[in-house]
Amino acid sequence: MEGLIAVLVGVLFATGTYCLLRRSIVKLVIGVILISHGANLLVFTSGGLLAGRPALVPSDGTVPPAPFGDPLPQAMVLTAIVIGFGLTAFLLALVTRAYEAVGDDDINAFRNTDT
Amino acid sequence: MPSFLVISLAVIFLASVIAPMVVRALGDRAGWFLAAAPLAAFGLFVSQAPVIASGASLVYEVDWFSALEASFALRLDGLSLLMALLVTGIGTFIVIYTGGYMHGHPQLGRFYLYLLAFMGSMVGLVLSDNVILMFVFWEGTSITSYLLIGFNHEEKSSRWKALQALLVTGLGAMAMLAGLILIGMVTGSYRFSEINGMGDVLQASPWYTAIVLLILGGCFTKSAQVPFHFWLPNAMAGPTPVSAFLHSATMVKAGIFLMARLNPALSSVGGGGLWEYMLAIFGGLTLLLAMFLGLFQKDAKSILAYTTLGVLGILTMLLGIGTEYAIKAMVVFLIGHALYKATLFMVIGSVDHEAGTRDVTLLRGLRKVMPITALAGLLAALSMSGIPPFFGFIGKELIYKAGVGLAGPDLIFLVVAFVGNLVMMGLALKAGVGPFFGKADLAALPKKPHEAPLAMWIGPAVLAGLGLIFGLVPFWVSTHMVEPAIAAIQGSTIHSLELALWDLVKPNLPLLLSALTVAGGCLVFINRRRFWAVADGVLARIRPLGAEAVYDRLFNATIWFSKFQTIRLQTGRLHDYVFFIVATAVAFLAWALFSFWGQPVSFAWASYDPLIIGIVIIMIVAAVVAVSSRSYIKVLAALGVVGFGVALLFAYFGAPDLAITQLLVETLTVVLFMFVVLRLPPLKSISKTRTRLRDAILASVFGALITVLLIQAVNIQFKSPISEQLAAMSYPEAKGKNVVNVILVDFRALDTMGEIVVVAVAALGIAALVSSGLIKRKEASK
Amino acid sequence: MKYFILKEASRVLFPALLVLSLVVLYRGHNLPGGGFIGGLLAAIAFILVGFGNSMKRAKDLLRLNPVQIMALGLATAVLSAVPGLLFNAPFLTGEWLPGFSLPLLGKVHLGTPLVFDIGVYLVVLGFVLHSTFSLARLADIQMEEEKS
């Protein structure tokens, strides 16, 4: 089912990029969120997809029964999700402050902000 | 005790570091104290001379970065001993001289710092056995010489000329580095001592031509060979001690040194290969051009600069001719030149210092007021002219001996050498004799001259005296400096060398040529005013044709291009930056996918779980809504749908940890987003429809490429995944049954550590933003 | 009285979520869970109180400043790396105490990876609460503690 997920990832990247190209600062945050979803799924999928086979060692064994979902991309994506959340939180604080300082949500109004 | 190699290096660098403090404590007398460092190094090298003369070499090595073949390997052989003696010996007098010349200069400490750092780099360069280490020191000399040439940085022209020297030598060094790495790849060794034994391997390699051209790119720029010669006369912008040092024994000789160092590896066995002809032809051209331009100079320092250029040409040419006499001539000439050129520069510096001008059309008859300086200048000029019994004479004799040994078309080099030497003698007299003899006209000078202080005449006097002593009794120099150096350059031992003046007694062709040179040189000197009369016109006409004009044009074009692309690409508007970045990514991605195209992928839609198909369709719709809707509630809801959809996919495809994390994070994101949008104005559409269309097309292409990339990535497996080992070790080694968690907290815990640090830093950023916002608000409400 | 249900729910759910987060943290090494998930769960417990009651009440319940919690978490994580060094192994090498059995928990393995995970838990908890409190302040959400 990788093909289907690949299409989804492409849509997420496309919509996210389109948002990044907008001038409204809120759209930038939306774009970053969509692209992080896309990137997480990209890494997750590139290891290959297997339905319902988590990499867990059964209680009576020492190795997870093959086949199992690739745990390495999963570990990477897990940290990526949390970092993405950190980035979003920071961006939200930044956007709020920027709007307060400039009084406009058009990014082009941000060119002369040295006060 | 090879560790003395490191000690001698360390002493000089140490002196460099403490120089500003010493100057603060001792003032102008600091020079005498600081000169102890190069003098100590000189003493250490002299003490090793007998060992080197016996054919041995000293090695010191500390492992440094073995994975990159870079080790701190120093090696003292005949060639490096010769260079090290020149650098530290002349350096000692330069350091003393500086104290007098820059008497009371507020930045004297900084000057000594640069000068000694330069000297240390130069010593390191000649001692390095490791190629990479040599390159590091090579760049060290480029950078420190940049600082020295541009020392009077308040003047714009000074900065420009220093930058020119840095750019020309720096770009050459880049080419040279490529050449050195090619040598390393071909021979498998990064040690000069090993490379020089593998000349046959190098010459059999298809890379040989490229190696020669790249190495010469570095050497020709550093040693100012045509067409890179123009930076050297410009480097006169530095204070005179800099010129005296850089142009006599150091900077410009670095290129000659490296050519000599690599001569055993790159020269052909029978001679007459690419290496030989490149050196001989470019050296000869440099000599002729330098002599021609030198004729028209009126500034004594410029005259000396062009003679330096000429000497560099001769040395390169001799190395290219490569016969035993030629190499002998080169080594002797190198020593002789270092002695008289350092002297002459210091003499001119003293004259400039005391009389206030370097214009040779004004200077004359100074011998009465500056007797010691005048004597030093005279001795040096005679040595440079090749008059017996000076050391310079031996060098010139050897050049002619090498020349008459040539046959056929190669005889052209003898003609070139003859013309070069002839003009050089005229120039030597112009700079070293002219100012001191004739009828004095002290009133025409800006200052009333008197003899220079001790610090400023001791160096010229000693070095000029050595030029005479070496000529009279050449035995020690011959056995301890010349012969070992020749052995190192030729890569083989040589039979004993008769270095003597006694060839005088029997008439022969070289002697005749010498006599003709002297006569011609005197003729040039006597007619010097005729050249000066037309100088301005000739130089103005030549300038636009020269290599420097090309440099200027390239430089300006680079700046123009830089401005052009800055204005086009860095508009100050975020969406433009994003557009360019994404467009570039699209281009590279497309190129990469095109060139790595794998086999076509079958989608096999029928096998897909309808549940997943449904989820994906809902997510796609939600993503489009999140982009296009103007209501915050709808956008938030749509983002929530996408996020929860991702969590469902994680859950479905066997990643429970990810699913839970995604779920929780999604909840929190919606909460935070809600806080923020409450204060923001409603979304509105700003851009024009055309811009939207353009962005939509780019974004779609990017998305499509990502889709293709992912499909390819799933299908291409470069290496077997390491996950299997990780899963197999998880329970036995790390006592954990959840492999994902074991990777996070054990196998790759350092990554996780980095990640939580990043998160903490993000928190600090939020704290700063929020607190500054609250302060602003409080101020506004007051 | 506006948020009566939310307030009552948060009162009950807060301790339950907190305990759940600790359980998830502990069992994370063997079953889905771990420091990240545990920390997020605990943070949600506090945020629930923030919405149901007031952000101030949530801060009071936390006792420590969120930034201090993050610092504590980082320190814990770094500390877990030290035993490996003491045994002459590379930084962050897992070291384990001998396993033993406890009622309720069964066989127990205690080691530095768990300590590391506790550090992760604390950092995540501190970070989420810090950003939530900050953004709430910035958004001027007035959630004074209601007088009962």
CA gyration radius of chain C, whole angstroms: 18 Å
Name the strands of the widest sheet of chain C in spatial order: 1-2
Q: Whole-number average pLDDT of chain A?
A: 86
User: What proportion of the residues of chain A form beta strands (DSSP E)?
Assistant: under 5%
Secondary structure elements and pairings:
The complex is a heterotrimer of chains A (115), B (782) and C (148).
Chain A: H1 2-20, H2 25-46, H3 71-102
Helix pairs in contact in A: 1-2, 2-3
Chain B: H1 4-26, H2 30-34, H3 36-53, E1 58-65, E2 70-76, H4 78-101, H5 108-127, H6 131-149, H7 156-187, H8 192-195, H9 199-204, H10 208-222, H11 231-234, H12 240-248, H13 251-266, H14 274-294, H15 300-321, H16 324-355, H17 371-385, H18 391-404, H19 412-432, H20 454-472, H21 475-490, H22 509-526, H23 528-542, H24 547-569, H25 574-595, H26 610-628, H27 632-652, H28 656-677, H29 689-715, H30 723-734, H31 739-747, H32 749-781
Antiparallel strand pairs in B: 1-2
Chain C: H1 4-27, H2 35-52, H3 55-62, H4 66-86, E1 100-102, E2 106-108, H5 112-138
Antiparallel strand pairs in C: 1-2
Helix pairs in contact in C: 1-2, 2-3, 2-5, 4-5
What keyword list fits this structure?
heterotrimer; A: 115 residues; mainly alpha; Helix Hairpins; 3 helices; C: 148 residues; two-stranded antiparallel sheet; 5 helices; 2 strands; 66% helix; flat
Textual characterization of the structure:
The complex is a heterotrimer of chains A (115), B (782) and C (148). Chain A has 115 residues and is mainly alpha-helical. In chain A, 63% of the residues lie in helices and 0% in strands. The longest helix of chain A is centred in the last third of the chain and has 32 residues, at 71-102. Chain A is elongated and about 65 Å long. Chain B has 782 residues and is mainly alpha-helical. Among the domains of chain B are: 297-306 and 315-526, no CATH class; 536-569; 574-724, Four Helix Bundle (Hemerythrin (Met), subunit A) (Up-down Bundle), CATH 1.20.120; 725-782. Helix content of chain B is 74%, strand content 2%. Chain B contains 32 helices and two strands. Chain C has helices at 4-27, 35-52, 55-62, 66-86, 112-138; strands at residues 100-102, 106-108. Chain C is flat, with a radius of gyration of 18 Å. Chain A binds chain C through residues 54, 56-57, 78-79, 82, 85-86, 89-90, 92-93, 96-97, and chain C through 30-32, 36, 124, 127-128, 131, 134-135, 138-139.
